[in-house]
Design goal:
CATH class of the domain at 272-405: Alpha Beta
Number of strands: 11
Strand content: 15-25%
Shape: globular
Largest sheet: 9 strands, antiparallel
CATH architecture of the domain at 272-405: 2-Layer Sandwich
Radius of gyration: 22 Å
Order of helices and strands: EEEHEEHEHEHHHEEEHEH
Structural class: alpha+beta
Length: 426
């Protein structure tokens, strides 16, 4: 990312340079879409705008009715972080959200945070950690969400949406408390892993003393696509899954299944209009067991052939599946909308591998991310069905879990993450 400076980074009249103080106060609010090395066209695919993905290394527009990183074409890498709030001061927390927004606006456009990583006062920490210097924006998107526990703070109880429910315990869950929950989250997606890690690192640094990372997850090898003409990626089991995922260009399906609408109603719901609800699940795969399973059984488990990805009895991946030709406990059959009264979610998962578990087995699997208009009508009934009947359960285990309310997008340079929740007039 470049060290390009903006007139908006100047300190307010009568105040010292922010570089002379500890931390960063959110400079650079009036940033244009300029990437490293020159201007690039910033696009927001899936946001009722140009459906084309940003070019290689390009910038994705930060402003919009919906947050980027949901229906945006899925990038190659992920750094996801859940945070615990450490402050009881509402004004301090709101100030942090504004600072985060300013930093996110700069980083997604390919700029360093604040006044940059070098060139300032030698006596003060730099505003940016510097590891993304010289790197392109890499289609970085940053998406924020608020967990149920946040609404126990800051007099927000009356604004918790009815749809933001605590997830029930599902059959087979073996959740690690250290990888579960969180007051808020940041999802950083990019085509360069260093750009994604840089973003989380800098937001955590800006939030020091106000928030702390509860858990985080690196992801690679996207397992779902929101681009209809792209090849469906494979998961670590070698199969294509999620062929009929909602595309970023399918505005009608996004409106029906993903975006919270004006008329959704419910206690505390209005501030969520234009937002969505996110479920994050860390799913451990029993890789060693799967790798010793016959090809026929693997294909029966999924209900697809492994080579083409075609449903049972069909020739091509995108052929309409004949569900009754699959085994009753086949994953595709049980997850298909026709088996769930039309339930449809937008999937945005990534593969992960985090070394071994100490017993010589890979700690690897799927970091599942699903966006929907209402968790009660999306993930919960779907997962109840899958956890009870899916043949895939023999080879996987859900070990981490969280749910978040993802507010609408940042509209312009004067807007900020969470304004509709924290502003009294919202």
């Amino acid at each position: 990312m470049t060290e390009t400076q903006d007139t908006a980074t100047a300190s307010p009249a009568g105040s010292p340079s922010r570089r002379a103080l500890i931390g960063w106060g959110g400079a650079g609010l009036a940033l244009g879409a300029v990437a490293a090395g020159g201007a690039v066209a910033a696009t927001r695919a899936g946001d009722d705008a140009d459906p084309a993905a940003a070019g290689a290394g390009g910038a994705v527009a930060f402003h919009g009715a919906h947050q980027a990183g949901i229906a945006t074409p899925v990038q190659d890498r992920l750094h996801f972080a859940a945070f615990d709030v450490k402050t009881d001061d509402r004004a301090e927390f709101v100030r942090m959200l504004k600072d985060w927004t300013a930093a996110a606006r700069r980083m997604t456009a390919g700029h360093a945070v604040g006044e940059g990583a070098y060139g300032g006062l030698a006596e003060a920490p730099p505003d940016d950690t510097g590891e993304a210097l010289g790197l392109a924006p890499s289609r970085l998107t940053l998406t924020i969400g608020f967990g149920p526990s946040l609404f126990e703070r800051f007099d927000l109880a009356g604004r918790r949406p009815e749809a933001l429910v605590d997830l029930p315990r599902f059959a087979g869950d073996n959740l690690d408390r250290t990888r579960t929950g969180g007051d808020l989250c940041i999802q950083a997606c990019a085509d360069d892993p260093q750009v994604a890690v840089h973003a989380i690192r800098n937001l955590a640094r800006i939030g020091f003393g106000k928030v702390a990372i509860r858990w985080s997850q690196l992801g690679f090898g996207k397992t779902s696509s929101t681009t209809p003409d792209a090849q469906t990626p494979r998961n670590l089991m070698g199969f294509k899954d999620g062929t009929r995922n909602i595309a970023g260009t399918e505005t009608d399906r996004l409106k029906k299944f993903v975006w919270v609408g004006d008329g959704d109603g419910g206690k505390g719901e209005s501030w969520m209009t234009g937002g969505s609800y996110l479920v994050a699940r860390r799913i451990r795969m029993n890789i060693e067991t799967w790798d010793r399973t016959s090809l026929q059984e693997q294909e029966d488990v999924f209900g697809r052939d492994k080579g083409e990805g075609a449903p049972v009895g069909r020739a091509k991946e995108h052929d309409k599946p004949f569900l009754k030709a699959m085994k009753p406990d086949a994953h595709v059959r049980l997850a298909h909308p026709d088996s769930n009264n039309g339930i449809t979610i937008l999937r945005r998962g990534y593969s992960f591998t985090d070394g071994t578990d100490g017993l010589g087995r890979l700690d690897a699997g799927l970091f599942f991310l699903a966006y929907q208009r209402d968790v009660r009508k999306g993930f919960i009934p779907l997962q109840r069905q899958l956890s009870a009947k899916d043949a895939l359960n023999e080879y996987i285990q859900h070990v981490g879990s969280a749910v978040f309310a993802v507010p609408p997008g940042v509209r312009d340079k004067d807007d900020w993450w969470g304004r509709t929740l924290f502003s009294e007039e919202a």
